[in-house]
């Protein structure tokens, strides 16, 4: 890689980590050249590359300054639909088989890249387990799971405003199993369940497997569920449960404010339905502190809180949980019937890791990284995609939801991007109907000139649709 690109990447990383704030003057060309032990022309080339990426701007006789990312309006929301059983096509499986191909630039993979795993700390935790509890780690760990881990999870939930006992927590094999078990607990085949539209495709697969009828609730890409539409649906149909992500949703990154959360709980009580809260991205809020979970307001165990460490630690850990309250015993029975137990070694590994105190340091780092990655992605989308393209700027996580101008087909873009070794996930995967001109873009990979160039190529492909 050319030296000026290496310097530009380093400065870009410092900008995204907050070392330089929007509006701040960067070191002069001469000072940068001295610090990096390069020629003045190399320093100029580095700044010019940052300028082309729209991260800095030159001011005459004053130097280079950090600029904020392009502000893109949020996409429009989708209309609701009548309750219906799902019939997802095999195209969904094909899409997710393709996005896992390791040779692709993985904008389609909503999992942290290995650079964002706390590998060294996990290695130390694994060493402690092998040294102190290896035989136990190989033993059968029945539901509700290791008590020490459940205690650590209950302590973590305090930061989300939830006062939970370790006895309330049931450990599962990831968040998907947590949500599926919660649905099995709350519903019978043929019941009506409300879901965000768009929503995480895994929830749609679970609803289909349980033979449930689904009513899609329009979702604002910034503020979350349309509560007026949810109320009308609940007054018209016997909704048994609602799956939602009040903190940070997949795929849009939407988040509900405190007033909306209070209204959602009040509506659930008035219309007598339960809420399955997916908070898998909750730990990745971009602020200094995370907002309270919906469960924090729950006074009658109407909310089954589901989460995991797949997005915040590493995808292969496969430790999720449900904070189930009075539903705990029934959930344990379903867990036992479903898979008997969660992995013993992973439970002890996560317990040791959480006890080490490293998790909060890790979260502080990756929150900064993901926020910076999204800023750079949005700047590139604003510069390189067709006029009229819109994208969300989420308050947490690492996902943005991109809406192309009407008439452009995101599935065609997905297919053409694969030929360019780039993956995205087209919007039709996330709903029964609609979103043909939308796609989900993941920024959970270290941002570099090569990654940015791949996004620029994606923009050129979209412009030729």
The overall average pLDDT, rounded, is 89
> Which term fits the overall shape?
globular
What percent strand? 5-15%
Which consecutive residue ranges, at least 5 long each, have pLDDT under 50?
Answer: none
Q: Which assembly state applies to the chains in this document?
A: single chain
CATH architecture of the largest domain: 3-Layer(aba) Sandwich
Number of helices: 15
CATH topology value of the largest domain: Aspartate Aminotransferase, domain 2
- What's the CATH class label of the largest domain? Alpha Beta
| Ends distance | 32 Å
Task: Return the domain count.
Answer: 3
What proportion of the residues is helical, as a percent range? 40-55%
How many beta-strand runs?
17
Largest sheet: 9 strands, mixed
Radius of gyration: 23 Å
CATH homologous superfamily label of the largest domain? Type I PLP-dependent aspartate aminotransferase-like (Major domain)
Helix-strand category: alpha/beta
């Amino acid at each position: 890689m050319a030296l000026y690109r290496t310097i530009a990447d380093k400065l870009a990383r410092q900008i995204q980590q907050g070392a330089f704030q929007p509006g701040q003057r960067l070191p002069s060309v001469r000072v940068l050249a001295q610090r990096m032990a390069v020629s003045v022309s190399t320093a100029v080339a580095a700044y010019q590359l940052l300028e082309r990426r729209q991260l800095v701007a030159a001011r005459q006789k004053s130097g280079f300054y950090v600029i904020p990312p392009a502000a893109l309006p949020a996409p429009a929301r989708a209309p609701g639909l009548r309750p219906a059983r799902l019939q997802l096509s095999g195209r969904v499986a094909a899409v997710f088989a393709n996005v896992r191909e390791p040779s692709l630039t993985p904008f389609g993979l909503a999992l942290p890249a290995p650079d964002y795993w706390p590998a060294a700390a996990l290695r130390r935790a694994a060493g402690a387990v092998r040294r102190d509890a290896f035989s136990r780690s190989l033993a059968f760990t029945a539901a509700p799971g290791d008590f020490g881990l459940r205690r650590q999870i209950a302590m973590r939930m305090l930061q989300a405003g939830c006062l939970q006992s370790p006895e309330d927590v049931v450990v599962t094999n990831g968040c998907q199993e947590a949500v599926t078990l919660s649905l099995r607990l709350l519903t019978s085949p043929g019941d009506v369940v409300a879901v965000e539209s768009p929503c995480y495709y895994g929830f749609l697969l679970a609803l289909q497997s349980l033979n449930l009828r689904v009513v899609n609730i329009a979702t604002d890409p910034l503020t979350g569920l349309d509560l007026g539409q949810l109320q009308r649906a609940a007054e018209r149909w016997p909704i048994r449960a609602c799956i939602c992500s009040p903190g940070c949703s997949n795929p849009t990154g939407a988040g509900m404010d405190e007033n909306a959360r209070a209204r959602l709980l009040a509506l659930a009580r008035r219309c007598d339905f339960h809420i399955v809260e997916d908070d898998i991205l909750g730990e990745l809020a971009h602020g200094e502190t995370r907002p309270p979970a919906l469960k924090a307001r729950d006074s009658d165990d109407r909310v089954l809180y589901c989460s995991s460490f797949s997005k915040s630690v590493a995808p292969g850990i496969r430790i999720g949980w449900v904070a189930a309250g009075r539903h705990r015993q029934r959930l344990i029975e379903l867990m036992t019937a479903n898979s008997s137990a969660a992995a013993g070694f992973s439970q002890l590994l996560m317990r040791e890791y959480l006890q080490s105190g490293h998790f909060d340091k890790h979260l502080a780092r990756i929150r900064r990284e993901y926020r910076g990655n999204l800023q750079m992605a949005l700047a590139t989308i604003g510069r390189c995609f067709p006029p009229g393209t819109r994208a969300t700027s989420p308050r947490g996580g690492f996902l943005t939801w991109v809406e192309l101008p009407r008439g452009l087909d995101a599935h065609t873009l997905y297919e053409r991007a694969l030929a360019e070794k780039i993956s995205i996930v087209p919007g039709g995967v996330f709903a029964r109907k609609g979103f043909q001109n939308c796609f989900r873009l993941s920024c959970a990979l270290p941002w570099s000139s090569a990654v940015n160039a791949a996004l620029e190529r994606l923009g050129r492909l979209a412009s030729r649709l």
